[in-house]
Amino acid sequence: MTDTATQPAVDTAAAGTDDEAVYDVPADATAYRCSYCGRPFARESWLALHRGLAHPNELDDEEIEAFRAAHDEEEESLSTFRLQALGALVLIYFGFLMVYALV
After folding, report:
1. In three state form, how does the secondary structure of the chain look?
2. 5-55 pLDDT, tens digit each
3. Global pTM exceeds 0.85
4. For the chain, what is the radius of gyration of the CA atoms?
5. What are the residues whose beta carbons fall under 8 Å from the beta carbon of 3, sequence distance 6 or more?
6. Who has the most CB within 10 Å: 19, 70, 91, 103?
């Protein structure tokens, strides 16, 4: 996994074919580049998620483990966000209900 090391992004865009998107990476930014498609990512966990979703048949055991860890971390973050969003909606709903009852 040599491509997961933080490397300065020297080029400002990754050239690709007509089917591939062009990515604009600032010259002073560091990027983690996918060894399979060359797509840059700002975080190593995003690179691991990309590899697991876009290149699942090409991964070695270490990359699979990194994907699973990043996926579990992402699921935990989403679960926390969902609970916070639900709590905010309940507070807003009952807040409007109290205002309506008083008016």
Report:
1. CHHHCCEECCCCECCCCCCCCCCECCCCCEEEECCCCCCEECCHHHHHHHHHHHCHHHCCHHHHHHHHHHHHHHHHHHHHHHHHHHHHHHHHHHHHHHHHHHC
2. 555 444 444 444 445 678 888 888 888 999 999 899 999 999 999 999 999
3. no
4. 21
5. 32, 33, 34, 35
6. 70
